[in-house]
Amino acid sequence: MREMTFSQAIEDALTQAMKEDQRVVVFGEDVHALRMNLYTRFGEKRVRPAPISESAFLGTAVGAAMAGLRPFVELILIDFLAVAADAIINQAAKVEAFSGGRWKVPMVVRAGCGGGYGDGGQHEQSLWGWIAHIPGLKVVVPSTPADAGGLLLAAIADESPVFFLEPKLLTDDLLEVLGSGGRTTVTYDIPTGGRSGPVPERWEPLALGRAAVRREGTDITIAGAGIAIHRATEAADLLSGEGISASVIDLRSIAPLDRDAVLKDVESTGRLLVVDDDYRDFGLTGELAAAVLESGLPARFARIAVEGTIPFDPKREQKVLPNVERIYEAARRLMER
Amino acid sequence: MFDSVSLYRKMLTCRRVEEAIAGLWQEGLISGEMHLGIGEEGINAGVLDHLGDGDAVALDHRGTAGMLLRGVEAAAIIKECMGLEDGLCGGMGGHMHLFSKDHLAASSGIVGSAGPTACGFALAAQHLRPKKVAVAFFGEGAMNQGMLMESLNLAAAWDLPVLFVCRDNGTAITTSSPAVTGGSLEERARGLGVSGKNISGVDVEVVWHEAAVMLDRARSGKGPSFLRTTCLRPQGHFLGDPLIRMVHKPVAEMKPRTGPLVSAAMSSGGASIAQRLAAITKIMAMIGRTARTQLGSAHDPVLQMRKKLKITADDLAGLEEEVELTVKDALEQALQSLPAGGEEATK
Known about the structure:
The complex is a heterodimer. By secondary structure, chain A is of the alpha/beta class. Chain A contains 14 helices and 14 strands. Chain A folds into 2 domains: 2-199, Rossmann fold (3-Layer(aba) Sandwich); 212-336, Rossmann fold (3-Layer(aba) Sandwich). The longest helix of chain A has 15 residues, at 6-20. The termini of chain A are far apart. In chain B, helix 8 links the parallel strand 8 (195-200) and strand 9. Chain B is an alpha/beta fold. The N and C termini of chain B lie far apart (48 Å). The longest helix of chain B has 25 residues, at 313-337. Chain B has a 7-stranded mixed beta sheet with strand order 2-3-1-4-5-9-8, with helices on both faces. Classes of the chains: A alpha/beta, B alpha/beta.
């Protein structure tokens, strides 16, 4: 076992994939700076800086994937997907279905997601529910360095378009550039877990669509992905002090969604609390509520998610994003019902 | 009439307000990124000096000076940057998302989006405010964004009263713009039916006269224009720009990067040695390019205007003191607005 930060794990797994498969090419904005090491090692033909033309380079990735490459696109922030939605929603997502399953689009879009560092509502969205809404797209959200590397390798190996979303609070590179900018005068509420951890000597792909049980409990199931997992784990510690035993399920992948893992746990706890850094309405929280209803399990349900545009003001931002206190309070209320 | 003293006052005010914002950011009183327009004062002031009530402006992520020049109170802008409840937008937007409905002035953190917004402002002017215009500000990086190119065409097709102002510092975040841009930007605009010009943004007088002609065209129903203005931005893309830090503190900033970089260059598996050398050469060139953007007085629009002022030394000193006091007052207002324990707000 080696020890790596979240960002190192991503770069290390990407390096392995590029070494093993010449078809893996990286492009996007500022990749010569963002991926300076890969740029140096593999040269500009395989690590290529792009103009600020998301429609063009995401659309190019679709065509390149169809014609035999395995593009790995650096979109920097998932918010920028909106600029190039057609390439993904109407092109990448449709090719496999339209071709009767004969033609696939093996591409990865990597982007930072989420807030917590005061960058405003146009740079801190999570948007995985939006992606997961579209048939033909996959989206993963790792919460540990080991998962980040394993899911990244799986995303590259997958034959479908996969979004690889990276919670910025767990990274050192994105958070340094977008948040502190070299300052020592700012700090954030960074979860204690997830920023670094043990990773395998050699990366193996992790199956997409498999949740991980991070903590076993008997009274309440807390499910989520990314930062929410670390917040939920902290809340579960607090809850155990009150005699409430919470399990924490790390979904890891929003699409495909491991409904079975959640339902299996809810079957024993009878309570589900979904924590989501994405918007509340028409998203992950509602999807899991539907899964419980459809299963016929007699479970109580509550959710915590982002209910409006994320405020720039860091104080209000903290209240809008799911935090330990909100999870703790919601879990207690769910126990009382 | 071109009024050099008034223009100098405006430019100096922008500079001092943005310096104050930079100070607050360094102190941790402003969170997230911070994109300032230091080095672009000649462009901002030279264009916006022509705007009046009913004219509209669409700004990008670098909009603090634009808001100031349209008449928004400095204190309201500074407070918004700090996320305070009594800021321009109640602390909801922050520096990238400044909005003033009264001034028909809007901004956005999405590159290129000023183009379509300005077209919309101009369309509304055609219907509701005859002879009024809209101005879009953006960088040369945005010129590769589809929505901006589409809005150039739309403005030409619909004869919209828009002035597209491209502030070109040659670098899109950290990427050399010529390396990712085909053709010339003025020709591109011309190809889309928008007449264009290329001038230096250092001399506010040149910008002012060129903008006057183009805005007159728009006001008289002759359609859009494109003004490409060149500038140097000593702070890079944003405050804390890693490239700028590498230039100023090469040892401290490069040390953590050098190890992985050398090992990447030497590891087996990867490109040929020639390709790797080419990549390293480009990284060094990127840092060198950044070093050259440091604002010497020859490239400083504020200092250049100051040199040409035809006023007495006493009057100049008086003017500068007045600007300093105005900005100091705005800064004090903002700091007084901090809630108790407010310094913890961004932590």
